Amino acid sequence: MTPQTEELLYYLLWTADRLMRPTWRNLNDSFETWAWRNRLSRRLAELARRKLIERHPEPSLARIVRLTQQGRHLALGGRDPVNQWNRPWDGKWRLILFDVPEVQSRLRQQFRRVLRQFHFGHLQGSVWASPDPPERVRTLLGESDVEAKALLVIEGRPATGETDQSIVDGAWDFPLIRRRYLRYLSFLDATPPQDSRLIGWSRQENNFWQNAVGVDPLLPRALLPSEYLGFEALRRRQSILAKLARQTTIS
């Protein structure tokens, strides 16, 4: 998916957060100008073909445009924070080990990229961790080109007294995650503009948000550190985008 498509889905998402069924006539002139300049009609047709949006009753900009569930998922960066936080955890850890000879350094790097892409925690060397069940681990890794025969998934609990929090602290960089959320919250402290500059502001807002949530594994709630700022960041984001959505409607 291109950055332009991601941006369009994002705009649809934050206006829909308030309006649920936004029409293009309800959006302000600066957004419409931006949309037409970027050949919106053709891009909407492509999104509809990929079942990322629905248009009713006809494929016209004057009609209602709304995101499908798949479209919302992609607009959120491919992961819904609330669903991720609320997913159940059975108290077991899955350790992912891969065995690739040093001479195959390219394949080793590929393994690491895939594991980071899916936010597995890195404990040491070729040992990675996940709180998710093995079926989900296999599903995620199956979406890549990683050779399954080089992987070993071990399920269980620590046998020498390590706490869940010590595993979390060792596998993920939560100080970095906290700093990213602090930057995002600092950005929100500035009042958004109420004119044509709003488009640029919203682009910055999305970049700051993706910069933070992109490094966050979005662990189940039971595993998150006490100083975790993801909940507050999402609450503030939903609040300010809902307010902006109201401002961009015509009463």
Can you offer a commentary on this structure?
The protein contains eleven helices and six strands. The longest helix has 18 residues. The protein has three domains: 73 residues, Arc Repressor Mutant, subunit A (Orthogonal Bundle), CATH 1.10.10; 65 residues, Alpha-Beta Plaits (2-Layer Sandwich); 76 residues. Helix 1 packs across helix 4. The strands form two sheets. A four-stranded antiparallel β-sheet has the order 4-5-3-6. Strands 1-2 form a two-stranded antiparallel ribbon. With 251 residues, the chain is of the alpha+beta class.
Write a brief caption for the model.
The chain is of the alpha+beta class. It has helices at about 5-20, 30-35, 40-50, 70-75, 80-85, 105-115, 135-140, 165-170, 175-190, 200-215, 230-245; strands at about 55, 65, 95-100, 120-125, 125-130, 150-155.
Largest sheet: 4 strands, antiparallel
Tell me roughly what share of residues is in helical segments: 40-55%
Instruction: Note the gap between the termini.
Output: 34 Å
- Summing up helix and strand content along with how strands pair, one would put the structural category as alpha+beta
Order of helical and strand elements: HHHEEHHEHEEHEHHHH
Number of helices: 11
Give the low-pLDDT segments.
16-32
Oligomer: single chain
Walk across the major sheet and give the strand order: 4-5-3-6
Count of distinct strands:
6
Average pLDDT number: 75
Portion in strands: 5-15%
Radius of gyration: 21 Å
> What is the domain total for the residues?
3
